[in-house]
Amino acid sequence: MAPVRAAGTVVVALSIGAILSYFLRSRSKSSSTKTSNRRSSRNGLIAAIGNTPLIRINSLSDATGCEILGKAEFLNPGGSVKDRVAVKIIEEALQSGSLAPGGVVTEGSAGSTAISLATVAPAYGCKCHVVIPDDVAIEKSQILEALGAMVERVKPVSITHRDHYVNVARRRALEANEIASKRQNNTKDGNQINGYTSEKETQSILYEHKGGFFADQFENLANFRAHYEGTGPEIWEQVGGNLDAFVAAAGTGGTLSGISRFLKEKNSSIKCFLIDPPGSGLFNKVTRGVMYTREEAEGHRLKNPFDTITEGIGINRLTKNFKLAELDGAFRGTDIEAVEMSRYLLKNDGLFLGSSSAMNCVGAVRVAQALGPGHTIVTILCDSGMRHLTKFYNAQYLSRYRLTPSATRLEFLGLD
After folding, report:
1. What is the DSSP string of 170-212?
2. Tens of pLDDT, residues 291-325
3. Residue 308 — φ and ψ, nearest 5°?
4. Where do the H-state alpha helices sit in 97-193?
5. What is the pTM of this model?
6. Which of 305, 401, 314, 296 is nearest to 356 (CA)?
7. Which letter does DSSP use for residue 227 in this model?
8. What pLDDT digit, counting tens, does each position of 121-162 carry?
9. Which one, 16, 26, 68, 91, has least CB within 10 Å?
10. How far apart are CA 368 and CA 331, in angstroms?
């Protein structure tokens, strides 16, 4: 299936404000020098993040005649590509004074970013408070609790609702700052804050720390910079500059935008594509310039529909991070393709991948089919299947949504 291309060279209409915000803050030094200097000053757990291997996915490469390479981000200490983002967000917040040493980092996350923040925050002397939708795989909240994070599970609602998990996380940071301010004035506030399960928990995560900081992974351009300054340069070095295409799905948009922009600056002929899951409006935005109808817009839905089995990718709004992406086209992926791909890679390559990684591999095959044999294509292996056992790798759950895998080869993508 050929990609649907957008009108104009740059598919996504870039936000001038977002671009200026990035360039004013981070173009004064070359990305390679900055990355090298930053890593040399890190130690302990933080020094182990990044520089992940770029592996050849043998079965997909052999089937398509292309070199399909996956950036093995599941090998980061926190188990996902979001480790890079967590480090960048916390370091920039500490440098700017937005986060005080000993403060609490709050975030609304479907799982991976929250786990990464909870993993790296202690390395900076900070704590983590996470708000997640209650429909994500339960093992993600169990991991967070084991890591020592305070976890709030809330009902999935529109981003425009005050109780959307992102908006709740933003409020928690404000509450932590208010409490820290009162403590500085030697006052005590004994009132319980709505949303916390007990006064003891409130005190443990808010009262005992020096203010709060909302990570804001969707709109914080530290997300973009983590990949523009880190992941992108690593890929370029690992392929020796010999690259034809890059493809990935988008949630916050930071990975896709940071890598695509870096690669395009190195070689404008490199094609960059989006692979979009069901229920997401980004495919329409990239290919048609219109994300959704008025009725489908976030804030107008009457309920949270079952859109996709994949977690952490797909969205129905444009984030500041995604606006910085430079794309040449987009593909749609389906849930059954992602499920089938995950089982195919496990059987043929020994790769136990999460749902977004599987969707990215679907995208890599689609790009290979569009470009033809002889091309080098890179995608991101975001996380492993360890966090997806109760849904994506649960036979009963898949059967409920008629997603039971049955393919023996790649026939689900038109390859035999």
Report:
1. HHHHHHHHHHHHHHHTT----PPPTT-S-HHHHIIIIITSS-E
2. 864 545 555 443 344 478 998 999 999 999 999 99
3. -155, 150
4. 112-120, 138-146, 165-184
5. 0.84
6. 314
7. I
8. 999 999 999 999 888 878 888 999 999 999 999 998 888 899
9. 16
10. 12
